[in-house]
Amino acid sequence: MKILVFLSVILIFFSFGFYFYYKTKQFRTSLPIRKKWYASMASIALGSFVLFFGINQLLLFQTVVTYIIAGIFIILGAGLIVYNSKAAKHYRSFLDEEARLNK
Question: Is Transmembrane helix included in the keywords of this UniProt record (predicted)?
């Protein structure tokens, strides 16, 4: 059980780090499609943060209130990941064209 908690904490830190990485890349670029792609990638990382936080809370505390709140976090995180991965896939198809046009 302790290894699962440790693994979930590591995944929380990685997802939080990727969130800040993509947010800084979003603010530093001037290309509009690339900016939207970075925003959707940052939202995927934020969704994984919320998902892993919900899983971590399930592993740490076993109360009814924790199950309800963690379930909401897990559903919300999974929804963020699915929605923004579709958006990132959509924007990814236009990145090469935008780079070619803005040389």
Answer: yes
Q: How large is the greatest C-alpha to C-alpha distance in the chain, in angstroms?
A: 57
Is residue 37 within 8 A of residue 97, CB to CB? The reply is no
The answer to whether residue 90 scores a pLDDT higher than 80 is: yes
Enumerate the domain spans of the chain.
2-98
Residue owning tokens 């693994």? 7
Distance CA 71, CA 52 (A): 11
- Assigned token pair, 16: 């939080």
Contact 48, 74 (CB under 8 A): no
User: Which is nearest to 12 in space by CA: 42, 41, 45, 39?
Assistant: 45
pTM score: 0.91
The answer to whether the beta carbons of residues 81 and 19 sit under 8 Å apart is no
Among candidate residues 46, 41, 53, 54, the one with its CA nearest the CA of residue 15: 46
